[in-house]
């Protein structure tokens, strides 16, 4: 029987560990971990994600602060807010929700966050530490770190001898995911839109990670029988069966047809998504421990 990987349950156990670490830190005389989430503009999907993050931060016992800036915010004003949060001794973690409105350039904003407060793990210092195999002193990008916990549930920590294919090459996900898999000794391939034959690459993968942003692109005949499939895609598609004008979330993997071929498969929703938020909380509690000069937990 195929294992359907339960991202909600895995996320709940990370959250439990984060909450207990936060409680221990506070009861040893330190302040609560502080997370600042910055959102610019009024994209409804972004607001939904940010509320979920703020809610979870409170549940973990953090001091959670949300900064909502108007759509027409200037680059200068956004950078000034980040500078203020960098200097704020109560703040351990800063997250600037992406994407930003089109007139803003996200890269200088992300790179202006202090690396030790970069709970998204997107600063070049954190990306560089991961790329050089230092997984201990930086902060890991949340979605890859969460996806890796799901991979570990199936295969353990050592992926020696296993072929892994990551489809997608973004700095946000594909590249850091490939680094984590490589660090666990998998043989890693990164496929993308310019790859010659993705289905053929996929058929060699013991671990297939899809992050392309194309609804149900990975089909059953792409899979090596017994592969582990991690679906990172979140696509909103029309769902006429739910009623006129309704939508549903689907991944980058055609779940129903792939499930019988796979050894294990993560669903959408309920797979990697909940892990992303859990790892954001994990990074925040890690950053708070380091700031307090106390040994940080690992996840
Ligand atoms: N600076 C920044 N950091 C991010 O980590 C970041 C971001 N910007 N911008 C947007 C993306 C997307 N993202 C998700 C988080 C949780 C779910 C999640 O929990 N999804 C649920 C379903 C939620 C629903 O029903 O809409 C699930 O897959 O089960 C999904 C996507 C974080 N992102």
CATH topology of the largest domain, anyone?
Rossmann fold
| Assembly form of the protein | single chain
Ranges with pLDDT <50 over ≥5 residues? none
CA distance, first residue to last residue:
28 Å
Morphology call: globular
Key attributes of the depicted protein:
single chain; 299 residues; Rossmann fold; three-stranded parallel sheet
What does this structure look like?
It is a single chain. The protein has helices at 7-27, 44-59, 75-87, 106-112, 124-131, 142-155, 174-183, 198-202, 255-258, 272-292, and strands spanning 3-4, 34-40, 63-69, 93-96, 163-167, 187-191, 207-210, 228-231, 235-238, 247-250, 264-265. By secondary structure, it is of the alpha/beta class. It has two domains: 29-114, Leucine Dehydrogenase, chain A, domain 1 (Rossmann fold), CATH 3.40.50; 142-274, Rossmann fold (3-Layer(aba) Sandwich), CATH 3.40.50. The strands form three sheets. The protein has a six-stranded parallel β-sheet. A three-stranded parallel β-sheet has the order 3-2-4, with helices on both faces. It is globular and about 55 Å long. 5,10-Methenyltetrahydrofolate binds at residues 49, 95-98, 120, 142, 234, 249, 268-270, 273-274, 276-277. Belongs to the tetrahydrofolate dehydrogenase/cyclohydrolase family. Catalyzes the oxidation of 5,10-methylenetetrahydrofolate to 5,10-methenyltetrahydrofolate and then the hydrolysis of 5,10-methenyltetrahydrofolate to 10-formyltetrahydrofolate. Keywords: Amino-acid biosynthesis, Histidine biosynthesis, Hydrolase, Methionine biosynthesis, Multifunctional enzyme, NADP, One-carbon metabolism, Oxidoreductase, Purine biosynthesis.
């Amino acid at each position: 029987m195929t294992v359907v990987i339960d991202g909600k349950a895995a996320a709940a156990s990370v959250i439990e560990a984060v909450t207990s670490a936060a409680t221990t830190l506070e009861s040893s005389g330190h302040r609560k971990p502080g997370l600042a989430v910055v959102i610019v503009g009024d994209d409804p999907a972004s607001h939904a994600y940010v509320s979920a993050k703020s809610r979870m931060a409170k549940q973990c016992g953090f001091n959670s602060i949300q900064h909502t800036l108007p759509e027409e915010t200037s680059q200068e004003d956004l950078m000034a807010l980040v500078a203020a949060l960098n200097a704020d001794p109560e703040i351990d973690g800063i997250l600037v929700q992406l994407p930003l409105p089109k007139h803003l350039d996200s890269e200088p904003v992300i790179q202006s966050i202090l690396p030790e407060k970069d709970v998204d793990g997107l600063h070049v210092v954190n990306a560089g530490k991961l790329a050089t195999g230092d997984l201990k002193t930086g902060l890991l990008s949340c979605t890859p770190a969460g996806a890796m916990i799901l991979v570990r549930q199936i295969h353990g920590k050592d992926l020696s001898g296993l072929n892994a294919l990551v489809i997608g090459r973004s700095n946000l996900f594909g590249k850091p995911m490939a680094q984590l898999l490589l660090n666990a000794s998998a043989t890693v391939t990164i496929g993308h839109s310019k790859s010659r034959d993705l289905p053929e690459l996929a058929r060699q993968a013991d671990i297939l990670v899809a992050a392309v942003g194309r609804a149900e692109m990975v089909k059953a005949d792409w899979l090596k029988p017994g592969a582990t499939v991690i679906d990172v895609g979140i696509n909103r598609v029309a769902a006429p069966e739910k009623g006129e004008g309704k939508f549903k979330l689907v991944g980058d993997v055609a779940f129903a047809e792939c499930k019988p071929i796979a050894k294990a498969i993560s669903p959408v929703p309920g797979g990697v998504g909940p892990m992303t938020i859990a790892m954001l909380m994990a990074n925040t509690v890690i950053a708070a421990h380091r700031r307090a000069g106390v040994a940080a937990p690992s996840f």
